[in-house]
Amino acid sequence: MPDLNLLVTLDVLLSEGSVAGAARRLRLSPSAMSRALARLREVTGDPLLVRAGRSLVPTPRAIEIRGQLGPIVEGAKAVLRPAEALDLARLSRRFILRSSEGFAETFGPQLLSRAAAQAPGVTLRFLTKPDKESAPLREGEVDLETGVIDAATAPELRAGPLFRDRWIGVVRGDHALADGPVSAERLAACGHIQVLRRGLHSGEIDEAAHGAGIERRICAVVSGFSTALALARDTDLAAIVPERHTAALRQGLCSFDLPFHVAPFTISMLWHPRMDGDQAHRWFRNLVRGVCAAGPKLPV
After folding, report:
1. What is the distance between the alpha carbons of residues 108 and 113, in angstroms, rounded to a whole number?
2. What distances in angstroms separate CA 57 from CA 32, 40, 53, 66, 142, one per listed residue?
3. How high is the pLDDT of residue 199?
4. CA nearest 182: which of 128, 238, 136?
5. Per-residue CA distances from 189 to 136, 150, 206, 214, 292 (Å)
6. d(Cα 233, Cα 174) in Å, to the nearest integer?
7. How confident is the model over 70-79, as pLDDT tens digits?
8. Cα dihedral sign for 234, 297, 299, 262?
């Protein structure tokens, strides 16, 4: 394999037309530069620089090479040069965020507002997250996603916590449970909407209720929080959903503390490690982190 360092050496030699001058420029000794020239002559099969009086002049082959060498060397320098400082005002990029139901509705407005103020050329695309498959992140189809880290989360992914959340009960504004504290007995007497989705809502709700002596009477089974809340809004049924995650979806509904304990959980953001050093991606991660730290305005 050819020594690519010789390209820089040859470029300087042809530019200086002097072994001593090239040595000074590259901070080498004259003898080291002479050895480099000998190596270049061996590799190219051409003397490249020949003596004419007291100076060196390029051969026709050297002149031909010199025309090709400049762009190659400059391109290599550009590749190896540290990344320039991020200019948000000139950044033009689309970021794709994959999240569970309610995240875009709750945190999306603030994300869009802050992104527009800091980087007007940025577009945000929100995708729903039907599963915990890590392929979209691994293959670059998604820039960032939010969710609960568990045994199903791919171990190579990077993660950072965003906020803690907890389960609460929700009914329509004029529901009987909206009047006064919700006891275990009152909740057990009510029909329920069950949310079955991978990774976030599972049997822990029913296990916790059962431990408190409550057997939920399931009248409807849905696959997402927005559907559960839509049904709760127009029926006598109660839904159990994450508080912060669904803040924007619960406007006009009555929310209440559960009469039994269910462990809270942490929502994290996840990304592929190849994006660690990307300055624009780092800005986007900080943007999401900042918006989530500020938190949504929770309905009363």
Report:
1. 8
2. 20, 15, 10, 13, 56
3. 46
4. 238
5. 43, 33, 15, 9, 36
6. 10
7. 777 776 666 5
8. positive
Q: Which residues contact 298 (CB under 8 A, 6 or more apart)?
A: 243, 244, 247
Residue 98 contacts residue 144 (beta carbons within 8 Å): yes
Give the pLDDT score at 288: 97
% of the chain at pLDDT higher than 70? 91
Q: Are 177 and 204 in contact (CB under 8 A)?
A: no
Backbone CA torsion sign across 75, 80, 84, 88: positive
Q: What are the tens digits of pLDDT across the range 235-258?
A: 999 999 999 989 989 999 999 999
Unique residue bearing structure tokens 């060397």: 73
Write phi, then psi, for 47 (nearest 5 degrees): -65, -20
Q: Can you tell me the distance from the alpha carbon of 246 to that of 229, in angstroms, rounded to the nearest whole number?
A: 9
What the chain holds in terms of domains, given with CATH numbers, is: 5-80 (1.10.10.10), 88-164+266-294 (3.40.190.10), 167-263 (3.40.190.10)
Whether the pTM exceeds 0.85: the reply is no
